[in-house]
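Notes on consecutive records. When two proteins share a document, each keeps its own sequence and its own C-alpha cell line. Never mix them. Below: protein one.
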Amino acid sequence: DKQNVSSSSDSIQPPILITNIFLTPQKIKSSSIEATGTNSGGNLGIKGGIVYLHKNLFHSGERLTVRLNGGLEVQQLINQPQKEQLIFGVFNTFEFGPEVNLEIPRFLLPISFEKFSKNLNPKTSFNYILNYQNRPEYERNLTQFSFGYFWNAKNKYKKHFLNPFTISLIKIHLTEQFKTRIEQENNPFIISSFTDHLISASNYTYVYNNQTSNKTRDFKFFRFSTEFAGNTLWLSDVMLNTPKNEKGGFEYFHIQYAQYMKFDFDYRYYNQAPFSALVSRIAFGIGRPYGNLNVLPFEKSYFGGGANGIRAWQARTLGPGSLPDSLISTQFVNQIGEIKIEGNLEYRFDITKLFKGA
C-alpha cells in the first residue's frame, strides 16, 4: 500500500505532536502486457506475454500470477534441414505456453509452525507450467508442477529455497532427418538426451547476496544448490517388485524416469566503481546419474559459454565439450556434460546511461 505521513503541532498544547497516516490501497487485480528482447546462449529472439495478477486471492495475502508466454528465437541448428521454415523470414524457433503461480504468505504444513518468525517472510509456492517448443529438428512439450517453500534468514542477506516436490514430463517428437542423424552418432548419451523422459526431483538452494542500494559499495554473491531425482519412485518400484522394461529401467506412463544427484556452487565478487565494475566469478557443478537411467536429462546437463556463463563465447562452444569427436566425420552441436568448472574475470563499464559494455 502507498502511504502518506503528515505531522502538525497542537496550538493549545505545543509539546504534543499530532501525526496523521493516510493509506491508499493498491489495486488487488491487475493485468499487463510484456515484451522483451532475449539473448539465450547467444541465440537472439523476442519474447512477450500477457500477465494477470491477483494480490489477495483468498483474502489472506495470497498472490496469484497467470502468464501466457510466447517467443520467437534464432536457434543454432543442430542439423541442417532440407527446407527450413522461417517465421517472418528470420526466426526458426517458436515457443508458447501458460504458467500459473500461487504464492501463499505462510508455510502450509501438516503440523503447526507458528514459532517461525513472520519477520523471516515464510512463503509457500505452487507452480504449474505448460510449454510447447517448435524448432527445425524437433517439437518439445513440457508439463511441470512444483511445490515448495522459501524464506529469509535472520541475516537479511540470506535466503533459503526448498522444493520437496517437482515433477516434469518432457515429450519430444524428432524429424526423420534429425532422428537419422542421432542414430548415426551411435552415442547413447545423445540418444537418451533426445528421448521422452520423466523427472521427479527435490531440490534446495541457499543464496547469500549483500548488495545494497549503494552502487559504489563492493558486494558478494554466493549460491549453493543440490538436487536429487528419482529416488522415491525407484524405491517404491523396488518394494512393489515392478517389472522393468527391455532397457532394464522402471517406467511410468511408458516413459523411463531419470535418477540422479546434482551439486552446484557459484561465487561472485563485485568490485564497484562509480561508472564501472570488476566482477570475478567461479562456478562448479557436478551431476551424477545412477540407477534407473544412466545419463543426465538434457535440461539438467552442463555446457560452456552463453549469456549466463562466459559470454564471450556462444553456448556449447567453449571447453572440451566443444571439440569434435575424432571417430565421427561431423561435430554434434549440442555438446553437454556432467561436470562444469568455470572461472572468469569481467570488466563492466557504462557507455551511456542506457547502454553498458563488458
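Protein two starts on the next line and is unrelated to protein one.
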Amino acid sequence: MATSEPKAHDPKKRRPSKSASHPAVMIGSAVFTFLLFLAVGGGLAAWYGHSEYTAPGPLAQEKTVLIPRGQGGRDIAELLEREGVIDNWLLFFASAQVTRRGQLMQAGEYIFPARVSIARVMDLVTSGKVIQHQITIPEGLTSAQIVDRLNESDLLTGPARVPPEGTLLPETYNIVRGTRREEILARMTADQQKVLKDLWAKRAPDLPLKSPQ
C-alpha cells in the first residue's frame, strides 16, 4: 500500500506574529501614524505662516495711518486690514500673541511703505517711530492766547484750561498726532519752571527778589 509522503515545510509561509496583531501594538502604530501626520501638518502650517508673514503686502503705495490710543492688539490688526496695509488681520494678531509683541505696539501716526510685509509692519508699530509734528508758541502771548492756539490745532485732542500768567514757556514743541492739550500745557509749565530755576541760580546776589516766581 502506497503511503503519501509528508509535504515539505515551506519556511517562507509563516504564521503572523502574535505580537504584531496584539491590540497594544496596533494602537501604538496608529498613535505613531497620527503623531507623524500632525508633525508633518504642523510643519507645513508653520512654513505657510512664515511665508505669509514675510511676503510683500497688499499696499500699492506709501500710506500714513493713525493708530489711536487705547487700541488693543486685535483692534490694531483689524484697523491695519481696513486701511489696506495688511490682508490678514488674524495672522498679524496671532503673530503678536506668539511673539509676545502685542503689548509693545504703540499708538501714533505711522508711515507704511508700499508692499510692506506683516513682519515689517510689526516692527514699525512696536518701534514707536511715529511721525513727529511741531507746534510753535511765540513769545508775548498770554496764557489764554496760548490755549486758543492749542485749540486751533487739529493735531491735539481734549480740552485745556487756561493756566496762570507767566507759567508757560514759549517754545517750539515736538508732538505726535493725538497728544492731549493738557499734556502740552504740562510740558510748557515744567519747562518754564526749569528755566526759572536755572535763572534763579545764576541771579545777582543783590536782587530784591525772594523767589523765582
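For the record: Residues 23-54 form the longest helix (32 residues).
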